[in-house]
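Task: fold both queries, return C-alpha coordinates.
Query 1:
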Amino acid sequence: MDFLVMLEEGVDLSPVLARVDSVPSAFSQERCDRDVVTLYGIPKTESLALALAAAVESHRTGVGPGTFRHLGLLVGRGAVGDAAWRDITTGEIVTRDLDIPLDVLTATAQHLVVHFGSKLQRLVAGLSMPDWPEGARRAISITLDPVIEPTLAAIAKIESVLDIFRESDGMAFELEGD
Protein backbone atom coordinates (compact mmCIF):
# COMPACT_ATOMS: atom_id res chain seq x y z
CA MET A 1 0.00 0.00 0.00
CA ASP A 2 1.19 3.48 -0.86
CA PHE A 3 0.78 6.33 1.61
CA LEU A 4 1.57 10.02 1.56
CA VAL A 5 1.99 11.10 5.18
CA MET A 6 1.62 14.84 5.81
CA LEU A 7 2.02 16.87 8.97
CA GLU A 8 -0.35 19.68 9.87
CA GLU A 9 1.43 21.85 12.42
CA GLY A 10 -0.07 24.16 15.00
CA VAL A 11 -3.04 21.96 15.93
CA ASP A 12 -2.35 20.93 19.51
CA LEU A 13 -5.73 20.58 21.25
CA SER A 14 -7.77 19.01 18.47
CA PRO A 15 -9.81 15.86 19.23
CA VAL A 16 -8.83 14.65 15.75
CA LEU A 17 -5.48 12.82 15.71
CA ALA A 18 -5.37 12.38 11.95
CA ARG A 19 -7.31 12.46 8.72
CA VAL A 20 -7.17 9.67 6.14
CA ASP A 21 -8.21 10.22 2.53
CA SER A 22 -8.07 7.38 0.00
CA VAL A 23 -7.64 8.50 -3.57
CA PRO A 24 -8.27 5.88 -6.27
CA SER A 25 -5.90 5.55 -9.19
CA ALA A 26 -7.41 7.59 -12.01
CA PHE A 27 -5.56 6.16 -14.97
CA SER A 28 -5.03 2.46 -14.44
CA GLN A 29 -6.41 -0.38 -12.37
CA GLU A 30 -2.87 -1.77 -12.22
CA ARG A 31 -1.65 1.11 -10.07
CA CYS A 32 -2.50 1.04 -6.41
CA ASP A 33 -4.74 3.56 -4.76
CA ARG A 34 -2.93 6.06 -2.60
CA ASP A 35 -3.93 6.98 0.90
CA VAL A 36 -3.15 10.47 2.12
CA VAL A 37 -2.67 10.51 5.89
CA THR A 38 -2.57 13.91 7.60
CA LEU A 39 -1.27 13.91 11.17
CA TYR A 40 -2.20 16.78 13.50
CA GLY A 41 0.10 18.14 16.19
CA ILE A 42 3.40 16.57 17.16
CA PRO A 43 3.98 13.36 15.17
CA LYS A 44 4.41 10.15 17.16
CA THR A 45 4.92 6.59 16.00
CA GLU A 46 1.76 5.49 17.83
CA SER A 47 -0.49 8.10 16.19
CA LEU A 48 1.05 7.35 12.78
CA ALA A 49 0.44 3.61 13.27
CA LEU A 50 -3.20 4.27 14.26
CA ALA A 51 -3.72 6.48 11.20
CA LEU A 52 -2.17 3.88 8.89
CA ALA A 53 -4.31 1.22 10.58
CA ALA A 54 -7.40 3.31 9.78
CA ALA A 55 -6.34 3.40 6.13
CA VAL A 56 -5.70 -0.36 6.06
CA GLU A 57 -9.00 -1.19 7.78
CA SER A 58 -10.95 1.18 5.50
CA HIS A 59 -9.81 -0.90 2.53
CA ARG A 60 -11.23 -3.98 4.24
CA THR A 61 -14.77 -2.59 4.35
CA GLY A 62 -15.72 -4.60 1.28
CA VAL A 63 -16.04 -1.73 -1.18
CA GLY A 64 -14.15 -2.31 -4.42
CA PRO A 65 -11.65 -0.29 -6.42
CA GLY A 66 -12.36 3.30 -7.41
CA THR A 67 -13.64 4.20 -3.96
CA PHE A 68 -12.98 7.53 -2.27
CA ARG A 69 -12.70 7.20 1.50
CA HIS A 70 -12.56 10.01 4.04
CA LEU A 71 -11.94 9.23 7.71
CA GLY A 72 -11.21 11.21 10.83
CA LEU A 73 -9.27 9.46 13.59
CA LEU A 74 -10.79 10.67 16.86
CA VAL A 75 -9.27 10.41 20.33
CA GLY A 76 -10.91 7.55 22.23
CA ARG A 77 -13.44 6.80 19.48
CA GLY A 78 -11.73 5.24 16.48
CA ALA A 79 -12.10 6.22 12.84
CA VAL A 80 -15.31 7.76 11.53
CA GLY A 81 -16.03 8.80 7.97
CA ASP A 82 -17.55 7.71 4.69
CA ALA A 83 -16.85 5.97 1.41
CA ALA A 84 -18.17 6.91 -2.03
CA TRP A 85 -18.04 5.09 -5.36
CA ARG A 86 -19.87 4.94 -8.67
CA ASP A 87 -22.24 2.00 -9.04
CA ILE A 88 -21.31 0.07 -12.19
CA THR A 89 -24.87 -0.86 -13.15
CA THR A 90 -26.71 2.41 -12.50
CA GLY A 91 -23.88 4.93 -12.81
CA GLU A 92 -25.04 6.66 -9.62
CA ILE A 93 -22.78 7.70 -6.77
CA VAL A 94 -23.23 5.45 -3.75
CA THR A 95 -22.09 6.43 -0.26
CA ARG A 96 -21.68 4.46 2.93
CA ASP A 97 -20.77 5.56 6.44
CA LEU A 98 -17.64 4.02 7.92
CA ASP A 99 -17.06 3.50 11.63
CA ILE A 100 -13.96 1.55 12.62
CA PRO A 101 -13.77 0.84 16.38
CA LEU A 102 -10.69 1.83 18.36
CA ASP A 103 -9.94 -1.75 19.44
CA VAL A 104 -9.74 -2.89 15.79
CA LEU A 105 -7.46 0.04 14.97
CA THR A 106 -5.27 -0.64 17.99
CA ALA A 107 -4.80 -4.30 17.04
CA THR A 108 -3.92 -3.40 13.44
CA ALA A 109 -1.63 -0.58 14.61
CA GLN A 110 0.25 -2.97 16.89
CA HIS A 111 0.64 -5.36 13.97
CA LEU A 112 2.01 -2.53 11.83
CA VAL A 113 4.49 -1.51 14.54
CA VAL A 114 5.71 -5.10 14.88
CA HIS A 115 6.32 -5.43 11.13
CA PHE A 116 7.27 -1.85 10.17
CA GLY A 117 8.33 -0.20 13.46
CA SER A 118 11.72 1.08 12.31
CA LYS A 119 10.26 2.35 9.03
CA LEU A 120 7.53 4.24 10.92
CA GLN A 121 10.06 5.68 13.38
CA ARG A 122 12.22 6.96 10.51
CA LEU A 123 9.17 8.55 8.90
CA VAL A 124 8.21 10.30 12.16
CA ALA A 125 11.82 11.47 12.56
CA GLY A 126 11.77 12.85 9.03
CA LEU A 127 8.54 14.75 9.64
CA SER A 128 9.90 16.11 12.93
CA MET A 129 13.18 17.44 11.51
CA PRO A 130 13.51 21.18 12.15
CA ASP A 131 15.30 21.99 8.88
CA TRP A 132 12.31 21.86 6.53
CA PRO A 133 12.08 25.04 4.42
CA GLU A 134 9.78 27.62 5.93
CA GLY A 135 6.28 27.39 4.51
CA ALA A 136 6.87 23.96 2.98
CA ARG A 137 4.32 21.23 3.59
CA ARG A 138 5.90 18.38 5.48
CA ALA A 139 5.03 15.26 3.48
CA ILE A 140 6.82 11.94 3.01
CA SER A 141 5.75 8.94 0.90
CA ILE A 142 5.93 5.43 2.29
CA THR A 143 5.08 2.02 0.86
CA LEU A 144 4.20 -0.89 3.11
CA ASP A 145 4.26 -4.39 1.69
CA PRO A 146 1.02 -6.30 2.24
CA VAL A 147 1.78 -8.49 5.25
CA ILE A 148 -1.42 -7.68 7.11
CA GLU A 149 -3.23 -10.81 8.25
CA PRO A 150 -6.92 -11.26 7.39
CA THR A 151 -9.39 -9.61 9.74
CA LEU A 152 -12.06 -11.51 11.63
CA ALA A 153 -14.65 -10.32 9.10
CA ALA A 154 -12.63 -11.76 6.22
CA ILE A 155 -12.12 -15.03 8.08
CA ALA A 156 -15.86 -15.21 8.82
CA LYS A 157 -16.64 -14.79 5.09
CA ILE A 158 -14.22 -17.59 4.21
CA GLU A 159 -15.73 -19.80 6.90
CA SER A 160 -19.26 -19.19 5.57
CA VAL A 161 -18.16 -20.22 2.06
CA LEU A 162 -16.54 -23.35 3.48
CA ASP A 163 -19.76 -24.14 5.39
CA ILE A 164 -21.73 -23.95 2.13
CA PHE A 165 -19.29 -26.34 0.49
CA ARG A 166 -19.52 -28.71 3.45
CA GLU A 167 -23.32 -28.67 3.33
CA SER A 168 -23.41 -29.20 -0.42
CA ASP A 169 -21.22 -32.30 -0.14
CA GLY A 170 -24.29 -34.46 0.44
CA MET A 171 -25.97 -32.99 -2.64
CA ALA A 172 -23.18 -34.03 -5.02
CA PHE A 173 -23.94 -36.53 -7.74
CA GLU A 174 -23.02 -40.11 -6.98
CA LEU A 175 -21.18 -41.70 -9.88
CA GLU A 176 -20.94 -45.19 -8.42
CA GLY A 177 -24.67 -45.85 -8.75
CA ASP A 178 -26.65 -46.31 -5.58
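Query 1 returned. Query 2:
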Amino acid sequence: MGVQDRMKRYRQSGGAAGLVRVEVLVPASARPHVLAYAASIRKKHRDDRNELRKRIDQAVEDYGVRVLDNVDLSRLSDVSERARVVGKALMERGNARAFVIGRQLLELAG
Protein backbone atom coordinates (compact mmCIF):
# COMPACT_ATOMS: atom_id res chain seq x y z
CA MET A 1 0.00 0.00 0.00
CA GLY A 2 1.46 3.32 -1.06
CA VAL A 3 1.68 6.53 0.90
CA GLN A 4 -1.23 8.10 -0.97
CA ASP A 5 -3.42 5.06 -0.28
CA ARG A 6 -2.57 5.16 3.43
CA MET A 7 -3.36 8.87 3.62
CA LYS A 8 -6.67 8.36 1.82
CA ARG A 9 -7.60 5.48 4.12
CA TYR A 10 -6.62 7.51 7.22
CA ARG A 11 -8.87 10.36 6.12
CA GLN A 12 -11.80 8.05 5.35
CA SER A 13 -11.78 5.65 8.27
CA GLY A 14 -8.86 6.51 10.55
CA GLY A 15 -8.25 9.22 13.08
CA ALA A 16 -8.84 11.98 10.52
CA ALA A 17 -12.21 10.67 9.38
CA GLY A 18 -14.71 13.49 9.29
CA LEU A 19 -12.04 16.19 9.46
CA VAL A 20 -11.00 18.58 6.71
CA ARG A 21 -7.96 20.78 6.30
CA VAL A 22 -8.67 24.51 6.64
CA GLU A 23 -6.32 27.33 5.81
CA VAL A 24 -7.09 30.85 7.00
CA LEU A 25 -5.24 34.12 7.21
CA VAL A 26 -5.24 35.70 10.67
CA PRO A 27 -3.11 38.31 12.40
CA ALA A 28 0.04 36.87 13.94
CA SER A 29 -1.15 37.80 17.42
CA ALA A 30 -4.34 35.73 16.97
CA ARG A 31 -2.56 32.56 15.80
CA PRO A 32 -2.40 30.91 19.25
CA HIS A 33 -6.12 31.55 19.77
CA VAL A 34 -7.02 30.01 16.42
CA LEU A 35 -4.83 26.97 17.11
CA ALA A 36 -6.34 26.53 20.58
CA TYR A 37 -9.85 26.81 19.16
CA ALA A 38 -9.07 24.25 16.43
CA ALA A 39 -7.65 21.88 19.07
CA SER A 40 -10.81 22.22 21.17
CA ILE A 41 -12.99 21.49 18.11
CA ARG A 42 -10.93 18.38 17.31
CA LYS A 43 -11.17 17.20 20.92
CA LYS A 44 -14.95 17.64 20.91
CA HIS A 45 -15.16 15.73 17.61
CA ARG A 46 -13.08 12.85 19.03
CA ASP A 47 -15.10 12.80 22.26
CA ASP A 48 -18.38 12.72 20.32
CA ARG A 49 -17.15 9.84 18.16
CA ASN A 50 -15.99 7.90 21.22
CA GLU A 51 -19.37 8.44 22.90
CA LEU A 52 -21.12 7.25 19.74
CA ARG A 53 -18.89 4.14 19.63
CA LYS A 54 -19.70 3.35 23.27
CA ARG A 55 -23.43 3.69 22.65
CA ILE A 56 -23.25 1.49 19.54
CA ASP A 57 -21.31 -1.16 21.46
CA GLN A 58 -23.83 -1.07 24.31
CA ALA A 59 -26.77 -1.32 21.90
CA VAL A 60 -25.18 -4.26 20.07
CA GLU A 61 -24.48 -5.96 23.40
CA ASP A 62 -28.06 -5.46 24.60
CA TYR A 63 -30.02 -6.00 21.37
CA GLY A 64 -27.58 -7.40 18.81
CA VAL A 65 -29.01 -10.88 18.50
CA ARG A 66 -32.61 -9.73 18.28
CA VAL A 67 -32.38 -6.77 15.92
CA LEU A 68 -29.10 -7.09 14.03
CA ASP A 69 -29.49 -10.61 12.69
CA ASN A 70 -28.93 -9.65 9.04
CA VAL A 71 -26.65 -6.64 9.51
CA ASP A 72 -22.87 -6.82 9.10
CA LEU A 73 -21.44 -3.77 10.85
CA SER A 74 -17.88 -4.66 9.87
CA ARG A 75 -18.66 -3.66 6.29
CA LEU A 76 -19.38 -0.08 7.37
CA SER A 77 -16.26 2.05 7.69
CA ASP A 78 -17.62 5.15 9.41
CA VAL A 79 -18.91 5.35 12.98
CA SER A 80 -21.81 7.58 11.98
CA GLU A 81 -22.87 5.06 9.30
CA ARG A 82 -22.85 2.31 11.91
CA ALA A 83 -24.88 4.48 14.27
CA ARG A 84 -27.49 5.12 11.57
CA VAL A 85 -27.80 1.43 10.70
CA VAL A 86 -27.98 0.28 14.33
CA GLY A 87 -30.38 3.10 15.21
CA LYS A 88 -32.78 2.28 12.39
CA ALA A 89 -32.64 -1.44 13.18
CA LEU A 90 -33.39 -0.75 16.85
CA MET A 91 -36.32 1.48 15.95
CA GLU A 92 -37.80 -1.03 13.49
CA ARG A 93 -37.33 -4.28 15.39
CA GLY A 94 -36.81 -3.45 19.06
CA ASN A 95 -39.03 -2.68 22.01
CA ALA A 96 -39.81 0.80 23.38
CA ARG A 97 -36.44 1.12 25.11
CA ALA A 98 -34.67 0.08 21.91
CA PHE A 99 -36.68 2.67 20.00
CA VAL A 100 -35.44 5.40 22.36
CA ILE A 101 -31.84 4.22 22.04
CA GLY A 102 -32.23 4.14 18.25
CA ARG A 103 -33.49 7.72 18.22
CA GLN A 104 -30.54 8.80 20.35
CA LEU A 105 -28.09 7.09 18.00
CA LEU A 106 -29.64 8.74 14.97
CA GLU A 107 -29.53 12.11 16.69
CA LEU A 108 -25.87 11.73 17.66
CA ALA A 109 -24.94 10.50 14.18
CA GLY A 110 -26.29 13.68 12.68
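Both queries returned. Flag for query 2: The chain has a mean pLDDT of 85.
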